[in-house]
Design a protein that fits this description.
Blueprint: H1 3-29, H2 34-55, H3 58-66, H4 75-81, H5 93-104, E1 112-115, E2 121-122, E3 126-133, E4 138-144, H6 148-169, H7 179-194, H8 196-209, E5 216-217, E6 230-234, E7 239-240, H9 244-248, H10 254-270, E8 273-276, E9 284-286, E10 292-294, E11 300-303, H11 305-319, H12 323-333, H13 342-352, H14 365-377, H15 385-402, H16 407-425, H17 429-438, H18 440-446, H19 449-453, H20 455-469, H21 471-500, H22 503-538
Parallel strand pairs: 5-10
Antiparallel strand pairs: 1-3, 2-3, 3-4, 4-6, 7-9, 8-11, 9-10
Helix pairs in contact: 1-2, 1-6, 2-4, 6-7, 10-15, 10-16, 11-12, 11-17, 12-13, 13-20, 14-20, 21-22
């Protein structure tokens, strides 16, 4: 990638980020109402989307990953980028041929009988071509895009500059957005997807997992032709689940197809091991014989045995009201950031779970939801990437299932498949959870209604405590904002002094800028220090 192209790419992304930061800061200073903020985020999302399509490449992949971070980003922004399709124009064949020759160490006809020079599919990281091996076997050849490594370095360098600037100079929402952690997660996911040898290992894992399942087809992989930049797989034909005409010609009905899909994906979501994190209609097909075909294992998530144990213990802790244990599990799972205070989280969980849905008829639900949201958003909570991918996998599959069967049919099928899966697990923690769910009517009857009536006052008490805890934080933050405004004013004055050649204005502006910059960094330091030690210092006073 040429240096000029790199600078152009970086400048476009940085200018977009700078404009967004200015808009956000301006809205915060003017204390715009919620409706205006929604319009702003919609506008920002549209600009972000336009820039991604203009620059293509890795940024579209980053946009896709951000679109599943609804736990961190505003809804209006998410709506603008949630349907991003990772489709970009294919590369020149000469460049693809050069990569294949370099990876295979010789001419293509040493390995292939033929290869179509037109890409079957083209995305930001890889392109897929159809080829024929020497023995006549058709194969899908996934090739890493030319110059993608250079593009990645440029884009990550640009993102690191943006995050550094935002972390040090932009007043971000408190507590629930950790930009450094988000950047780390994005980088880990993309670097993993770049290494086709890891995708090959994921494919082999799924082959082993479903080797005894007749209703699932995983393509074979040709390891001798696969490298970190090339992945050669068996060519598999299938019907897309969105192809209504093709699905209607199958020998079984759509309800049965939905059941087969649930049988394939439910164990992935509940058991330790990898799960397919991107099961859209292009990656999940059905053969004419009724087998479920899984393709593209570049984006996979993993539920470790340790996570599975913590997750089950979390559910047990919530159901048995052992909130210290539940908070401990949330910490181990990575949902709570280091600055989270366990005792506050225990209180929040206790209040959120102390009422029953059937008792909400007499309450102002909107007011209650806003009250709870205010508290939760002030807490240092972030969903780890591996669980975001789990949610993505579930929601994507749910959308396809709803096109195949009615909601009542899906509930019936899901219960049938879940009970079948549960019977294979033996007597474990999931049995406890299932029996608890079945006992809900009795639980609702004996639950204390008086505790529920105290909920609004308890929520108000917790909110008041949090407000007092952040009072000093707000003082520092206000001083920091004022100094930032003074710095901007100084820069404007310097520009005016230079333009008019007025030395007095220039000297005064320089003095103001230096003074305000020093003050800004002092209060930034105080702000960070207070955030770090706030709980320990204030605990005895609150």
């Amino acid at each position: 990638m040429k240096s000029r192209s790199k600078l152009k790419r970086m400048s476009k992304v940085l200018s977009m980020a700078f404009v967004i930061f200015i808009q956000i800061y301006w809205y915060k200073v003017r204390k715009k109402p919620e409706a205006d903020w929604e319009k702003l985020w919609k506008k920002i999302g549209g600009r972000f989307r336009k820039t991604l399509f203009e620059l293509e490449g890795l940024l579209i992949k980053i946009g896709q990953l951000l679109s599943i971070r609804a736990d961190l980003l505003p809804n209006e922004f998410i709506r603008q980028i949630q349907d991003l399709t990772d489709q970009v124009p294919p590369s020149e064949w000469e460049e693809i041929e050069g990569i294949l020759k370099a990876e295979w160490g010789g001419p293509l006809d040493h390995s292939l009988l033929s290869i179509d020079k037109k890409a079957v599919a083209s995305a930001s990281i890889g392109e897929v071509y159809k080829g024929i091996l020497k023995d006549g076997q058709p194969v899908a050849i996934k090739v890493q895009r030319p110059n993608i490594q250079s593009i990645i370095k440029t884009d990550f360098r640009t993102l690191s500059i943006i995050i550094w600037f935002a972390h040090n100079f932009v007043p971000m929402p408190k507590g629930f957005i950790n930009l450094k952690l988000l950047f780390k997660e994005l980088k880990e996911v993309i670097v993993r997807e770049l290494d086709f040898s890891q995708e090959k290992n994921s494919l082999l894992f799924f082959q082993e997992r479903f080797k005894d399942v007749d209703g699932v087809k995983i393509p074979d992989v040709y390891s001798e032709l696969s490298t970190s930049k090339v992945l050669v797989m068996e060519w598999v034909e299938g019907i897309k689940l969105t192809d209504e005409e093709g699905v209607s010609q199958l020998e079984f009905n759509q309800r049965e197809l939905a059941e087969r899909l649930i049988e394939v994906f439910l164990p992935q979501w509940l058991e330790p091991g990898m799960f397919h994190a991107d099961p859209h209609s292009g990656n999940v097909l059905v053969s004419k014989e009724g087998k479920i075909i899984l393709l593209d294992f570049g984006m996979v998530g993993e539920i470790s045995k340790k996570d599975s144990i913590y997750f089950q213990t979390l559910i047990e802790g919530l159901l048995s009201k052992n909130y210290p244990k539940a908070v401990e599990c949330l910490t181990h799972l990575g949902f709570l950031l280091p600055e989270a205070e366990p005792r506050t989280m225990e209180k929040i969980l206790a209040e959120l779970l102390s009422f029953q849905p059937a008792q909400l008829k007499e309450m102002d639900l909107i007011a209650l939801k806003l009250e709870i949201n205010d508290i939760i958003q002030a807490l240092p909570i972030q969903v780890p990437t591996r669980f975001v991918f789990l949610g993505r996998s579930f929601i994507t599959m749910e959308g396809m299932l709803r096109n195949l069967a009615s909601e009542d049919d899906l509930i019936t099928v899901l219960k049938k498949v879940f009970m079948g899966w549960l019977s294979k697990q033996g007597n474990n923690k999931w049995s406890f959870i299932w029996f608890w769910l079945q006992s809900q009517p009795l639980f609702k009857t004996v639950h204390s209604f008086t505790e529920f009536l105290k909920l609004p006052q308890k929520l108000e008490n917790i909110k008041e405590i949090e407000q007092r805890r952040h009072f000093q934080f707000s003082i520092f933050e206000n001083h920091k904002k004022q100094l930032f405004q003074l710095t901007l004013l100084g820069f404007i004055g310097m520009g005016t002094g230079i333009y008019t050649s007025h030395q007095l204005i220039l000297q005064l502006s320089v003095g103001v800028s230096v003074f305000s910059c020093i003050g800004y960094f002092i209060y930034s330091f105080k702000l960070k220090k207070w955030m770090k030690y706030m709980h320990e210092k204030r605990r005895g006073k609150i």
